[in-house]
Specification:
Length: 62
């Protein structure tokens, strides 16, 4: 699995448990540093948008 996909899947899981999850928690659970997080997403808002797009994509295909 690519790092970006792993961050995204981690965020899906964490945001499902707590919608106020932040970058530090996502990065820690994904096993990366915050600097690496920012290589893939500019902000938590961008990550949330990617999570929403992923959810829409999965609901369309199922």
């Amino acid at each position: 699995m690519l790092v970006r996909e792993y961050i995204l899947e981690t965020a899906v899981y964490l945001l499902g448990k707590d919608p106020h999850t932040g970058i530090d928690e996502v990065a820690a659970v994904a096993g990366i540093g915050t600097a690496q997080f920012y290589q893939y997403f500019e902000s938590m808002d961008e990550l949330r948008a990617a999570v929403a797009a992923e959810a829409r994509s999965k609901s369309i295909h199922h």
